Amino acid sequence: MLTMILTPAIIYSVHNALKYLVKLKYLKAIPGESSGSAQDDDKGEFCSIKDQLIIIGYGINGQNLARAAKASKIPYVISDVNPETVRREKQNGEPIIYGDATYESVLEHLNVKCAKIIVIAVPDRIAIRRIVELSRKMNHDIYIIARTRFYSEVEEIKKLGADEVIPEEFETSIEIFTRVMQKYLIPRNEIEEFIAHIRKGSYEMLRTANNLAKITDIEFKMPDIRITTFRVEAHNHFANKTLAEIDLRKKYGLTLVGISRAGGNIINPSGEERILENDVLVFIGDVKQLDVSASAA
Length: 297
What we know:
The protein is an alpha/beta fold. 38% of the residues lie in helices and 17% in strands.
C-alpha cells in the first residue's frame, strides 16, 4: 500500500526534473559478485553516459520508476544488492548492476558525477543518509530524491544534500484524509487546496489527488437519498417508451443517471432515449419515491 502511494509522488518529481533529457540507447549492465562494488570487468561501462537517471533499489518504487523512464525514453541505470533480482532483471534487458551504493566505488561505476538525477528508493534509513551524502559530495549539481519512513527525518536528510525527500507517513496521511473527505463529498478542488496548504513551506511537492468520489458516496452523505437499479421487463409500462414520455422526474421525482444495456452503458440519457426490455435503469431519488416508482412499474 505504501509503495503504491509513494510511487506517483516519486515519478512526479523525476518527471519535472527530467524535462530536458535527450533520448539514449539502453545500457547493458553486468552484475558483480561483491556487495561492495561492481566487478573490475564492468568498470567504466557508464563513464560515457551523460544526464542519466540513477535508481538505487529495485523494489516496487524502483520498478515503477524504471518503467516510467523507459516509456519516456529517459536513460537510466539501476543498482540493487539482491543478486537474484539483478540476474533476473539483467536477463529481461534492464540496465542493472549488483552493488551497494553506500560505497563510493559503486557510485563511481554508476557515473554519478555525470548523472542528472539519483533516486534513492531503498528502505534502510542509514543507507539513505550515506548515499545522499556521498552523491552530493561526488556531484554538486545532481538532483537527489530520497524516500524515508518518517516526516521527522525530512529536514535531516535534506541537510545531508537531498533536494526532495518523500516521507511515507506523510503521503499515507494525505491519502487517508483525502479519501475521508471524498466520502463526505468535499469538492475535489477544496481537497487539493487543503493538501497544498499542508505541504506549503516544509514539504512542497504537489501530487494531484485522484480516486474521484463515486456516485455511491452520495448515500453516505445523504442517507435519505438512495441509488438503485431496476431491470425493465416486457410488462412494465416503462418498456418501449422514451424518457420524455415516461417523465420520471415530474411523476415520481426521480432522476435517471444511466442505463445499462447489452453492448454498453448510456450515461445521462436524453429525453429521446427509448427504454428497452432488459435495460437496467440507474436511479437517484428519495427512498419513498423509489418505492413508489417500483410498485408503479
